[in-house]
Design goal:
mainly alpha, 7% strand, 163 residues, 60% helix, extended
Length: 163
């Protein structure tokens, strides 16, 4: 579970996520300086810490690094929500309280997300059923034409002595 990002870590990661490309410390610094006074070494330290924590990967480019996000802002937010929810002693009540805090727009986004998950679940179930049918088909095709399945499963009584 990820720990929540600190204020400056979040400001840096917000830029990395928004830009969605490899970024340098200088690029992040220049953008941050539009909002606050901050030193190059501070941004460099934060980005190095984010790398050590596994939030970004980096590749050397000359004497500098280019940093890229390891996951998305959505994945980060989902992990935080999951952690908070899973620590509740009453997960259903926690969800009801959480939903009660949502705006109408957030509830609509939740409905959309549930529809997507349900559609994905239905598609996965259909794919599983198709895979099972495909796996069974070769066994049926392997039996010679006109022969009964093994074990007398044809529903016919076997002929022979005593019958």
């Amino acid at each position: 579970m990820p720990r929540p990002l600190g204020e400056l870590e979040d400001a840096v990661m917000t830029r990395v996520w928004q830009w969605n490309r490899p970024v340098t410390v200088r690029e992040v610094l220049e953008d941050l300086q539009q909002e606050r006074s901050i030193a190059y070494t501070t941004v460099m330290t934060v980005m190095d810490n984010l790398h050590q924590k596994g939030w970004v990967r980096r590749e050397a480019e000359g004497r500098a690094y280019r940093y890229t996000a390891v996951s998305t802002r959505a994945a980060y937010s989902a992990a935080l929500m999951n952690e908070a929810w899973s620590t509740s002693d009453n997960p259903a009540a926690a969800l009801v309280a959480f939903f009660g805090m949502m705006s109408a727009e957030q509830r609509e986004a939740l409905r959309d997300a549930v529809r997507i998950v349900q559609h994905d679940d239905e598609a996965a179930e259909a794919a599983d059923a198709a895979d099972a049918a495909e796996a069974a088909a070769p066994a049926e095709a392997a039996a010679p034409a006109g022969s009964a399945p093994a074990g007398g499963e044809s529903g016919e009584r076997p002929e022979g002595p005593g019958r």
